[in-house]
Amino acid sequence: MNTFHFKVGLFTLATFLLGTAFLAYLLYARGYFENTYRLQLAAATADGVVPGVPLVFSGIEIGQVTSLGLNENGGIVIQVELPERHAKWLKQDSIYTLDKPLIGSVKISVDSGDLVGAALPENSTMLLLTPDINKEIPVLIAQVKAILANVEHLTRKESDVNATLANLKTVTGRMTGEYGMLEGVLGSPQNARAVTESLDKTRALMTKLDSLTAKTDQWLFARDGVADSTRESLAQVRLMLDDAQSSLKKADALMTNAVAISADVKAGTQDIAALRAEIDDAVRKANALVNEINKLWPFARDPEVKLP
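Below the sequence we write its predicted structure tokens.
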């Protein structure tokens, strides 16, 4: 029984210690154990300022209003407290402004232009600037009127916006026609039809060109085609040219012999006859060569080699 009571007591003590530690952590996290820095703000009006209004530096809350009161002269004094670690942002030349937007909560903004300037002593009294919202209302009304005038200008019947919407409606209406977007872009079914017909003709022409190219390729490069026939003809012409060149060389040799024996006409009668026979043979072969070339290229003329 004593053991059971001991365990219950131990559990109760552990729970109490954990709860105390958790509470102490929460108080520490909320800065309860941190030193507090106090500041007084003098204002001409405290309209909208209540305890809990935040003190904001660069958009971050660093403190809050704790109380409001009056000094001996009837002036408004606003008490502000903040953690001592945030006091370094408050300088002697800092500007404090009461920000009361039309939409949103009230806040006190701090603007410290020189962050390396002299620090502000604790419990100092600084002036709180309170902009007059009544002066801003006419400016705001003027801006609203300008916006409404622009909206009216945009929405009137003859405005550019309405004209653009009308043109857009016309284009989208054309797109519902037979030719779709093409009709909408070109402006009429006739123009769209002309374009589609041109495309069809172009497609048909491309098809014919593909077919013609295939036939031409087969005609030129197929087996026993023009290319093969031309190659064989050129080989035959080369052989005939070689034969003609050989005959002409023989004729040249005979002419050389004829010049050598021209002094003895009687002795060289037989050589001249042989020379004449060789020249006649060369001329016949040349004529045969020309005839063969004319057979291969029908557009050529009919040249004839004549004896001098």
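The first helix runs from residue 2 to 29.
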